Amino acid sequence: MNEYDNEKGNWRILTNKEIYASVKKPTIIETIRLNRLCWFGHVQRVEGNRVAKRVLYMNLGTTRLRGRPRNRWQDEVREDGRIVGGEGWQEKLHNREEWKKLLRTARNRLILHIPME
Question: Is the confidence at residue 110, as pLDDT, over 70?
């Protein structure tokens, strides 16, 4: 996106940070984090024999590669939940209305915002 600079009399390219500040919409990272938490809350509330819940807690029985372990999906969800709801976020999972309220406030306040460099 470009903007005309009156002082210098030329066009300049806006940075992503400037664009997000002017649009006031969540970034793609914030959207992914909120959708991940929404899905996790849904899967936690379904019955134990449903496919989604079985896959979430499935143990494949394979060994991990050498080196630094990659983050698992559950590790990311745990971090997102801690950011949004503090230490007691897991108790709110089972009450659908509390969970929706928590996610709504996170979406409105942009709690999951990660500052851009």
Answer: no
